[in-house]
Amino acid sequence: MSEKTLAIIKPDAFKKKIVGKIIQRIEDEGFEIVRLKLIRLTLEEAKGFYIIHKDKKFYASLTGFMSSGPCLPMVLEADSAIARWREVMGATDPALAEPGTLRRAHGFSIERNAVHGSDAPETAEWEIKYFFAS
Q1: 2-131 falls under which CATH superfamily?
Q2: How many CB atoms lie within 10 A of CB 34?
Q3: Tell me, what's the pLDDT at 134?
Q4: Which of 17, 34, 104, 132 has the fewest C-beta atoms lying within 10 Å of its C-beta?
Q5: Spatial distance between the Cα atoms of 82 and 5, rounded to a whole number of angstroms
Q6: How confident is the model over 65-95, as pLDDT tens digits?
Q7: How many CB atoms lie within 10 A of CB 134?
Q8: What distance lies between CA 85 and its chain's CA centroid?
């Protein structure tokens, strides 16, 4: 069943100049990119997006990082898009991610792991609306 998920190419991927490689991988995996926009989150926007983590010790560091440079939110569509994108990304911690996943190949830490993806249909709906209101 076709579904949509939010993907974000994070500031560390821009710094490493691997954005094109990630987009190529997305297309190679059969996802359709139905929306995308290049942005630079303000600290307040990053805090709003990661509000679910506001009580966690990494919140300030994460929101600071996500507002430190450009990022590329995208809406991806495919059959089982959420689960498939999470498979392609790999575990949040690059050290625990499977070989061949984006985070294993390009991640540095739990925060600086190159990409983000929604974890459930409800999250995807909220995250997509956060970046693509219309």
Answers
A1: Nucleoside diphosphate kinase-like domain (3.30.70.141)
A2: 12
A3: 67
A4: 17
A5: 5
A6: 999 999 999 999 999 999 999 999 999 999 9
A7: 4
A8: 9
